[in-house]
Amino acid sequence: MYSEIMAIQLAAEICVHKGFTNVVIETDSTIARLIMIQEVSAPWAVDTIVRKIITLLRDKEIRFSHVYREGNAVADSLANYAIDEEISGTFEEFHQLPAQARKLINVDKAQIPSFRVRVHPWRF
């Protein structure tokens, strides 16, 4: 939960810094979304962070949206890249992104579907 809320805080800070006023923040964490739209109370461990995010975004048109993990492939790819390469920061332009992230963005742009498949063994 902590990492999801911290990611939302970073997104909020970037929105403020860049002057964005109409933003959709997507998360694959249903509980993080519910906390941010104040449908459930934030756990004490993230309550202060959540209040800071709400304060940062109070004058903005913000929508929090849930996406399934398949729709979050670019974010997951970038998170894994940051961990593997032990880096942090932001990418300002498409060409700065790692090759895997660019590939996933192009797949999204081409509207190629991603499927979640669960295979069950045959039961006789």
UniProtKB/TrEMBL annotation:
<dbReference type="InterPro" id="IPR044730">
    <property type="entry name" value="RNase_H-like_dom_plant"/>
</dbReference>
<feature type="domain" description="RNase H type-1">
    <location>
        <begin position="3"/>
        <end position="82"/>
    </location>
</feature>
<dbReference type="InterPro" id="IPR012337">
    <property type="entry name" value="RNaseH-like_sf"/>
</dbReference>
<dbReference type="GO" id="GO:0004523">
    <property type="term" value="F:RNA-DNA hybrid ribonuclease activity"/>
</dbReference>
<dbReference type="InterPro" id="IPR002156">
    <property type="entry name" value="RNaseH_domain"/>
</dbReference>
<dbReference type="InterPro" id="IPR036397">
    <property type="entry name" value="RNaseH_sf"/>
</dbReference>
<protein>
    <recommendedName>
        <fullName>RNase H type-1 domain-containing protein</fullName>
    </recommendedName>
</protein>
<dbReference type="GO" id="GO:0003676">
    <property type="term" value="F:nucleic acid binding"/>
</dbReference>
<dbReference type="InterPro" id="IPR053151">
    <property type="entry name" value="RNase_H-like"/>
</dbReference>
<dbReference type="Pfam" id="PF13456">
    <property type="entry name" value="RVT_3"/>
</dbReference>
